[in-house]
Amino acid sequence: MPKLSLVVPVYKVQGYLPECLDSVLGQDCTDFEIIAVDDCSPDESGAILDEYAKRDSRIHVIHLTENVGLGRARNAGLEKATGDYVLFLDSDDTLSDGALSAIRDRLEATDHPEILVFDYARTYWDGRVRPNLRADLLKEEGPDVFSLTERPQLLDLLQIVWNKAYRRDFVTRTGLTFPPGYYEDAPWTFCSMISAERIAVLDRVCVRYRQRREGGNILKTVSRKHFEVFDQYRRVFDYLDAHEELARWRGPLFRKMVDHYLTVLERPGRLPQNARAEFFHRAAADYRARVPKGFTRPGGGRGHKYAMLERDAYTTMVSALAAVKLRQRVRTRTRTALNRSKRSAMGAFYQSQLRLPLDENLVLFSAYWSRSVSCNPAAIDAELARQAPHMRRVWAVRAENAAQVPKGVRVVRVGSREYWAALARAKYLVNNVNFADAVVKREGQIHVQTHHGTPLKTMGLDQQKYPASTDMNFEKLLERCDRWDYSVSSNRFSSVIWERVYPCSYTTLETGYPRNDVLVNATSEDVRSARAALGLADGAKAFLYMPTHREYQPGFTPPLDLARFADELGPDVTLLVRGHYFYGSSPHTAELRRTGRIVDVSGHAKVEDLYLAADALITDYSSAMFDYAVLDRPVISYVPDWDVYSAVRGTYFDLLQEPPGAVATSQAELLRLLASGDYDSRETTERRDAFRRRFCEFDDGHAAERVVRRVFLGDETPLPFVPFDERPHAPTPAQALELVERA
Predict the structure, then answer these.
(1) Is the pTM of the predicted complex or chain greater than 0.85?
(2) How far apart are CA 254 and CA 311, in angstroms?
(3) Cα separation of 196 and 99, whole Å?
(4) In which residue ranges of the chain is pLDDT below 50?
(5) Rounded Cα–Cα distance for residues 289 and 292 (Å)
(6) Beta partners for 122?
């Protein structure tokens, strides 16, 4: 049997669950088991648990068939625990390094107490860490082991279950279980602490208590469920009634009860407005029914609130709370003035447009900071034209890029009156990046964030950990993300990351990437047309080279000697080069370009056409690898600076260990792979198949249709995915040529 059993209830935490589990599995103490309880979670949390369990036998997963809530999920895990001690860890929190070793050592040093209380710290999205304000109560002073009678001030700690280790035989002996409902920690915590004869403390932060920016916290949920706090304290006092030997705790627990009721009343965002009077009267009834004989109210303002409950003086309490709100309004006056100033800076015209009704049939698209008509927004635009031709579709484009817009596309130039009018009045705004800070999200407007790639490199809040993004304003970033209503995802891998690094209240649409529909549905004629447009001869081999940029470099030079590379590949191979910069100053390189051996496609409007034309892709850290994999053609990862890039920019997986195909870390190695044909072998095909199943799981050719049906047509009936092994994809150039010759 393990020393420690960690019970981890799981519900809608796919963005945080891997970090939670990793924090446990990475502990230097290995004598533990994890009992993970999937509380019928509607996201991918259950699948994540199963994946971890396959890799580590210490993880035991329970999949509940219905959602039962936090307390009952903990009970289900508790029943399966076999360790000497039981700990509870919420699935969005993490253990600090060395926490389990410290807990184990303290348990042994104090001769195995019934309860060990340890410290925690609150962690925030912006990297702040706030210590427990009552950490002083955990100072290891006096006897190592004691009862609560000797240190009653421990009741002033936050009534939580996950900052303690409980000896399992103590839990069994006392019959402790978690009740259903909100505030389920209160009965467990109070009843266990007053029942224990041997308690010890550990003055060390063992749990990092995540303060989510959005969601995941019942304390920020307006609901009548907060009335369940009355049931929880009924259970506490029922326990006292059943244990006369614990009668001395009535006074302290009465005080905890009243303080808790007042907290629910005073904190905004908990009780519905029309339920506040009812809650107060019920709290007052509990007060009068349970007040101990000889009870002395606390002094000061708190004592006045006790007195109002005792008299059931709701009107007086409302007046007191109104005074508190007035003080809060005074404190926010400066912030309000600042916001007004910001709105004023947007311009009188934009403000006037914001006062006009929304245009229910107007859609504004933008892509890559309004530089082009492309990517996922363009694919959604095309599908919308087919399914909802009554909607007017407009693109925001910078003036310097307007000449590149395809014919027939309606454009508003960024900064113009038409642009601000469209931003203010369009019902739908679709972008693959964020709109500018000055854009106001109107009530009733729908913002669709399509993203523009599956992330290998760290994104959003994860960038805070790496030096390449030290100048980013993450607070502003999240304010922009707050405008999203929908976030489009091409795979569950991305969904998990987006929800964690952009913690805002949007709905994730797991549809596949609309821009990749063409890679599934293109015909042999589409492939031949794409090649002909680039001047590629039938039968000629074409490699598409797409290196990404490095934020830590002031400029970018492809880490490849293009001239030498073309020479060694020979005259029958064309290199299509698409990058942020293209160096072509040498006469030899210019000659290669003139003869067609090197084709600069950096300015090509549709990257999807380049994918269709190429026999294989050579890239490094670009998200192009995830899209090109849809075609099931060879992908070569040329990563000569992997160690630097992964350390400075940060990545979500090791590309050297999980590549989409062949890997080269030097130009000589890359040339050998291409010349020998080893880039397209049985081994690389197996790697590509695993990669495609992981990252192309939703790309079945109907992504744009799914987005249009859900967002614009209001159809929430899911469109089934074509089974992975039954999906078509565009023919290779060789297959396209063969089909033509047969015809």
Answers:
(1) no
(2) 16
(3) 23
(4) 334, 337-338, 341-342, 345, 580-585
(5) 9
(6) 130, 209
